[in-house]
């Protein structure tokens, strides 16, 4: 036996996280403070301050006790595929059948599988900056090359036809990942933006991967899926999840809705990557969806209330700007009047007031000079934190600043 | 807008299943017969005829009710990582810490992640023929090139140094996937085979991916992990699962044990592919592991009984041969005396006696002329089915056959 050199890990897995800071420094500092016994108001991550409804957990337990503890069929159980298909048909008007639905262990798993289906290794996958934190890593994990399309705060961070088309041409892209209602911006894409996306996708033969996990959290306007636009049902993969709509984040239950031939191939992938989703969790999801809009509205209600609170607080000052707050459990604030980066501001706010927010830069260069608040603490605490934040920003404004 | 050509799916996802028959024809025919109301004795897939123990389900429900329904930490909850590490340390003698353990949504997910970590796209991943049905597809899903190492029935389907070394040299392989106790053969690799594997791996800088999901089902001899051999802890990724050991197939809960730097990178991958495992399922796994060997023996007992039944039946005839039955819930029978392929025999057996078994060819060319029985029906039915199978084989023997 020769003196051995240990084998090397794949370049792919070594580079998933990319280079440089991952933008979670403030988050981890806040967690360390909490662990050390300090009181911190955490407005960082998108997790409800309620737990999964006990009735959903009871339904899960009943299914497990009744014996649904063996392997579940790979595309998902029929009852759940049918429930998801019926819901999508009802919400979008696009006829959707069981055969268009793959059940996945959560939305993140669906995002990964969708990119595995749409992109060959080395092909470019487009996404919109600012973006949810895992997007570039998900694309890299699938062996594709992430390419951000920058947007501007002045445009409410909305992409347009030219930006998408130019990026698709420049990189010979295979796919475009979009997200409405948007995390981190809280913007709900208007029809005109979705038409731009559809035109660019059809012009450049792009798959559209549409992350719609916040579809039940709409404060202004209406959710529109790109799959519902003319010609788009054949080239769109919709990613959905029970995490945000039903406070089932930990249950890891989601889906992909796509053309039947895509679902067939995604089932092959699932056989070799996940081997399906626990049957009793799928049964619980069927139960939860059967509760209809009432339960979804109950889960969304705290964010709706806090968003209204936030609007009244923000209207009473002229230091902190905000991106139109139309949906999702987040608020994107513009603190450029302080002359600080989002990261510097977030660190200062944590040090001075023990309030933790995410720097805009955590979600891409486009959101520099912004911070994202998750509206995930009790109303009183949330209001106090936002008022404190605004006062703090006011004290940081350079003396030569003139509010617009 | 131009007339659009629909975008294409990735070559990768189109080719996951490879070409040709997938070998599941008998299985699907049997399922169709059952659906049509016929009585079929199904000895096809590796799923217990018991359900998950109610005490485990109760522990799961308690955890969910207590609020463990939010995102769980990505490498896995500390209590479960510690429990797995302690169990591996105890069973193998190799010091194993929490930092060596990643919790995954099942063993299949662990197999995929391990190949993602070890192989760059286009690199060769070796595996032993005969093999568990998903192995080549899992390797293809990870973008690597599957290369089987053929073994012979006469060697109990055990690989040796030369076969592995030759394959590693010929293909510049990055990894070697091994499985003991073995599905489909029921063989438990002896120390000499594992030493061959270790020598070949160290000589050729191979990662060893060791699928040990049947480690609690041992009828003869003892389970030995390649990770326990000198120098191997630095280049072995062990795949484990609660599916077979605790009848938790549907709960999708497993793990990878590997060097700490590998687990760190696998955590990056998990963040972007699964986003973790339900916390209440992890709590249930902690509870199940805390029951110790007694529960594991209770779950294995039916297979131990049926294997003993099978040995007494097989000793009473000289038509059907068998591969040494040492572990796992399977029995690999040699029906070459009939002059038939495994597939032809399995189809004839299904048609004539409504007994469904898997053709050996479903698990690779090396197992041609064999059939695999899963010992997953009640003892009486199992014994009757095996006796019927032996009589049926006897009637099929060509008149010029002389038993050895």
TrEMBL record, chains A, B:
Keywords: Aminotransferase, Pyridoxal phosphate, Transferase. It comes from the Bacteria. Residues 40-386 form the Aminotransferase class I/classII large domain. One of its GO terms (molecular function) is pyridoxal phosphate binding. Its cofactor is pyridoxal 5'-phosphate. PROSITE patterns: AA_TRANSFER_CLASS_1. It catalyses: L-aspartate + 2-oxoglutarate = oxaloacetate + L-glutamate. Belongs to the class-I pyridoxal-phosphate-dependent aminotransferase family. PANTHER family: ASPARTATE AMINOTRANSFERASE. This is Aminotransferase.
């Amino acid at each position: 036996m020769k003196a051995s050199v240990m084998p090397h890990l794949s370049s792919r897995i070594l580079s998933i996280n990319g280079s440089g800071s991952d933008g979670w420094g403030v988050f981890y500092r806040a967690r360390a403070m909490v662990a050390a016994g300090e009181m911190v108001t955490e407005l960082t991550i998108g997790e409800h301050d309620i737990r999964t409804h006990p009735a959903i957990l009871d339904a899960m337990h009943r299914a497990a006790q009744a014996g649904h503890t063996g392997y579940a069929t790979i595309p998902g159980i029929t009852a759940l595929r049918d429930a998801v298909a019926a819901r999508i048909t009802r919400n979008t008007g696009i006829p959707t059948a069981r055969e268009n639905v793959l059940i996945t262990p959560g939305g993140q798993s669906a995002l990964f599988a969708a990119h595995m289906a749409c992109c060959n290794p080395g092909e470019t996958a487009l996404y919109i900056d600012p973006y949810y934190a895992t997007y570039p890593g998900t694309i890299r994990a699938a062996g594709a090359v992430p390419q951000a399309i920058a947007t501007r705060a002045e445009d409410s961070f909305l992409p347009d036809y030219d930006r998408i088309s130019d990026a698709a041409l420049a990189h010979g892209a295979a796919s475009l990942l979009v997200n409405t209602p948007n995390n981190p911006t809280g913007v709900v894409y208007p029809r005109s933006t979705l038409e731009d996306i559809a035109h660019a996708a059809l012009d450049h033969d792009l798959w559209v991967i549409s992350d719609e996990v916040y579809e039940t959290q709409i404060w202004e306007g209406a959710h529109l899926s790109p799959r519902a636009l003319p010609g788009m049902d054949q080239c769109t993969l919709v990613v959905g999840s029970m995490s945000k709509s039903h406070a089932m984040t930990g249950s890891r239950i989601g889906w992909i809705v796509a053309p039947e031939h895509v679902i067939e191939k995604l089932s092959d992938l699932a056989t070799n990557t996940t081997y399906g989703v626990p049957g009793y969790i799928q049964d619980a999801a069927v139960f939860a969806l059967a509760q209809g809009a009432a339960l979804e509205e109950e889960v969304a209600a705290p964010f709706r209330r806090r968003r209204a609170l936030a609007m009244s607080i923000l209207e009473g000052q002229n230091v902190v700007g905000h991106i139109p707050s139309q949906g999702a459990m987040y608020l994107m604030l513009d603190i450029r009047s302080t002359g600080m980066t989002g990261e510097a501001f977030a660190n200062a706010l944590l040090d001075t007031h023990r309030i933790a927010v995410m720097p805009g830069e955590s979600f891409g260069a486009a959101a520099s000079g912004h911070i994202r608040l998750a509206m995930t603490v009790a109303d009183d605490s949330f209001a106090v934190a936002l008022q404190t934040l605004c006062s703090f920003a006011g004290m940081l404004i350079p003396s030569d600043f003139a509010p617009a």
